[in-house]
Design goal:
The protein contains 13 helices and 12 strands. By secondary structure, the protein is an alpha/beta fold.
């Protein structure tokens, strides 16, 4: 008899976490490692948010919170959806979870049955297909490429839908590509979804406030209100407010779905950390000037890293419109060898060699469903990014 559940044999460990840990191990051995693997802003959580957490502690906010979230935060989440996204969720149609990942896991576990299919546009965040598989359903990758700006097209969406399709996972701006959809592009996808009433939409909007240039953010149920009753709109405070470690995600959706998700959460974790919830309340209701300042910094970093990488022979970079990732193609460099004689047959070989021989941690594109690429997170300091680009340029130039 084996200890580990059979279901775990269907999924892989997180490649992002694995490469981050490998980088940490090398660093512990005295190596100089610049890790660009995690999507984690290097800014400090704003002072007003930290002060709100301290005040909650001083007030004695140390009891179990309601499973679906403290009432003031659920009200603030509903207000945020109304104010920013024109979505008329009531507080009882919201839920607060331990990070956006738990929101997604709760929704999938509460709704999926064996035989169900979930459409996952490629390239995808690493946890989407693994969660679908873990819960007994089938992830269906829907292809895209640099030629489509790494975006799902209406034609590809239509071709992927079957009578078994339960969900479409829709992430804009996207991890890992940084691709962001215009209102017109979302409108075209919505027109397809209106023809298939069995398909629910999981709109992962976690990078909502990290959108650059003239593009304005829009979400699926906002663009097409007729999809409101079969859309779960997911968001959180991690990326926008530099609160990754506070672990607060939230969502709005139909009351029956939110109730089912709360039922799952009641047995898994109960309510999210109450101190972090009071901090998240301040994030959503307090001053928002931090968003503009951090966005401006990310634009500067994106442009500089893009400039540096586009000058590297063999790398090709699509300009991202949001999030804090660049997703270069390294396809031309595969088949070459490093000065130590290491063969680079795959993008994973490329990422491992870059880490072990040049001291730069990135995540290989096949982890996101699109081989021949790698993901860089530029959510770190400018000086480190410059050093990382120096190392990448040198590493690529020395390949034979």
């Amino acid at each position: 008899m084996t200890l580990v559940a059979h279901s775990l044999s269907r999924i892989k460990a997180s490649p992002t976490g694995g490469l981050t840990e490998k980088g940490n191990q090398l660093k512990a051995q005295g190596r100089s490692i610049i890790s660009l693997t995690q999507g984690q802003p290097d800014f400090e959580t704003p002072q007003n948010i930290r002060a709100a957490a301290r005040a909650a502690i001083d007030r004695g906010e140390n009891r179990y919170p309601p499973t679906a979230g403290i009432v003031p935060l659920r009200e603030a989440v509903a207000d945020k959806f109304r104010r920013d996204n024109e979505l008329p969720y009531k507080p009882q149609e919201t839920i607060v979870c331990t990070g956006g990942k738990q929101v997604i896991a709760n929704a999938l576990l509460a709704t999926l049955n064996p035989g169900d299919e979930v459409l996952v546009p490629v390239p995808y965040w690493v946890s989407y297909p693994e969660l679908v598989t873990l819960f007994g359903a089938t992830p269906v990758p829907v292809p895209s490429s640099a030629a489509t700006g790494f975006k799902l097209t209406p034609q590809a969406l239509e071709a992927a839908i079957t009578p078994r399709t339960k969900w479409l996972v829709f992430n804009s701006p996207s991890n890992p590509s940084g691709a962001a959809y215009s209102r017109d592009e979302i409108r075209a996808l919505a027109d397809v979804l209106l023809r298939h009433p069995q398909v629910w939409i999981l709109a992962d909007d976690i990078y909502e406030h990290l959108l650059y240039g003239d593009l304005r953010f829009a979400t699926m149920a906002q663009v097409e209100p007729a999809l409101h009753e079969r859309t779960l709109t997911v968001n959180g405070v991690s990326k926008a407010y530099a609160m990754t470690g506070w672990r607060i995600g939230y969502a709005g959706g139909p009351a029956a779905l939110i109730s089912a998700m709360a039922k799952v959460q009641g047995h898994f974790t109960s309510g999210a950390c109450v101190i972090a919830q009071w901090a998240a309340l301040e994030a959503l209701t307090g001053p928002q000037d931090f968003l503009d300042a951090s966005r401006a910094s990310f634009v500067q970093r994106r442009d500089r890293v893009l400039q540096r990488l586009q000058a590297v022979p063999g790398l090709h970079c699509h300009r991202p419109d949001g999030a804090f990732y660049i997703f270069p193609s390294c396809q031309e460099l595969l088949g070459r060898t490093t000065p130590s004689g290491r063969a680079l047959a795959t993008d994973e070989d490329f990422a491992l060699a870059l880490l072990e021989e040049a001291g730069v941690g990135v995540v290989h594109g096949s982890a996101f469903g699109l081989a021949g690429h790698f993901r860089i997170s530029y959510a770190t300091g400018v000086e480190q990014l410059e050093q990382a680009c120096d190392r990448i340029q040198r590493f690529c130039s020395e390949l034979r």
